[in-house]
Write a structure and sequence with these properties.
Two copies of one chain form a homodimer.
Chain A: H1 6-16, H2 23-35, H3 38-54, E1 56-57, E2 64-65, E3 82-86, H4 89-98, E4 104-107, H5 126-134, E5 139-142, H6 148-161, E6 167-170, H7 186-194
Parallel strand pairs in A: 3-4, 3-5, 5-6
Antiparallel strand pairs in A: 1-2
Helix pairs in contact in A: 1-2
Chain lengths: ~210, ~210
């Protein structure tokens, strides 16, 4: 792309560095911002740089936070005895959106995946063990993606927790609500038959 | 979406205001920026706000510019007698990318479209007439999109220029290079038959 303005070119190149944003999209976004008032663009820029400058990670659960301890960990209304282990921040947001979980979190920062060179030492597993030993945690719920890496991680961490007095569970896996048996893959179907639940125990929603 | 951080929420909301960027994409982009170094994000923010702060429009051709007169208009190597009329800045970038045009531009800032409430008074048509009168322009090439609005605009402006000693042309319209007759719409095909060119006059490329 040939630009008649170095300022424009620079802004387009910066946008094009974002994942999934090509040069054409970047140009479209920059031309959109040029049409906006100066203070609107100022606010956009400051929201981004200010966020990066001030944001930190909760020292308890490693979730994104505005302060040393995030507002989920410091919330006295949430059960401190129940901890949900997730891979990343996006999963925290997804679970929070359900409004079905009232405990606290522990963000691993990834998942055990030897093929990608991610071993247990690269994840926040040690700090989870320390939390289980020091805090009064009664139950750890694993909410990891249902795949080989997720299962490996659950297996590894639960082995490390076997001698500690804590209940270990994992979120239910099975056929998604609204799904159809006919189109469900055989692994999911086979597992959901093997892990069948008595109808009386099946909870529709906690609220 | 529920966020544990007001800074994160603010940054996501600002990104989600951009055209074609939803909440999920905005979150992905923000989480990408959180992973980057602080000075990388600083540079991103400053490229955007600095661009909006300093950018202006060329007072001759209304193209985006870093100074009062853009570097295309002020380039002494470009033919000042040839002016290409385009709808917007994106079209300037598209034509510059071909490296086939060595004249200057005139950006209308839109196209006549009564249905969208855009009349000739909202476009930079008057300044084009002034340029034709005051500068030594020999030829005006219209490079507008080939549709009803584009044709209307060409017709309207060329009517206003009839008494002035200037040649008026339009970029060739016809079947795109690499296209197939079989799949070309009938309008394009009919027009390209009506406007057929003697083979001897057909120029493959100016360079």
């Amino acid at each position: 792309m040939v630009f008649s303005s170095a300022l424009l070119e620079n802004a387009v190149n910066e946008f094009a560095k974002l994942p999934g944003v090509g040069k054409k999209t970047a140009l479209r976004l920059v031309l959109h911002l040029i049409k906006q008032d100066k203070d609107v663009v100022e606010r956009f820029g400051e929201a981004i740089t200010g966020m990066r400058e001030k944001i930190c990670f909760c020292k308890v659960c490693h979730n994104i936070s505005d302060s040393e301890v995030c507002n989920i960990c410091s919330n006295p209304l949430r059960k401190s005895s129940l901890v949900c282990v997730v891979e990343n921040i996006r999963d925290v947001i997804a679970i929070e959106a359900t409004q079905q979980f009232n405990g606290r979190y522990h963000v691993l920062g990834g998942i055990i995946s030897p093929l990608d060179g991610i071993g247990p030492d690269k994840l926040y597993i040690d700090s989870l063990i320390v939390r289980v030993k020091e805090e009064e945690i009664e139950e750890i719920v694993f909410a990891l993606n249902p795949n080989i890496q997720g299962d490996t991680t659950v297996f590894y961490i639960s082995k490390m927790l076997t001698d500690l007095p804590v209940k270990i569970t994992t979120i239910a896996r099975g056929i998604a609500f609204g799904g159809e048996l006919e189109y469900t893959d055989e692994h999911t179907l086979a597992r959901s038959i093997a892990n069948r639940i008595p109808v009386g125990q099946y909870v529709i929603s906690e609220h």
